[in-house]
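A protein record in our archive is deliberately plain, so that people and models can read it alike. The record that follows is passed on verbatim for readers who wish to inspect the format.
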Amino acid sequence: MADGIPTTLDAFVDDAEFTVVLKDQHHLVRGHGRALEDKVVFHEKDHLGGKDVRVWHVSLDDAGTVRAEAVAAF
């Protein structure tokens, strides 16, 4: 990981946290991820081990940039 930026999806598997930046707003995401094919399904929690808040699909695009997309599925 260079400068704290993940270069593989392994950083999102198991208990983890990451920051999503959207329109200059930073949102801290904490929870638990599991690998699924070419992405990580990440369950955001209200606190580690707590209740689900939302589900994210975390993937790498063709340029190797990490992308996190909130999905409406549990």
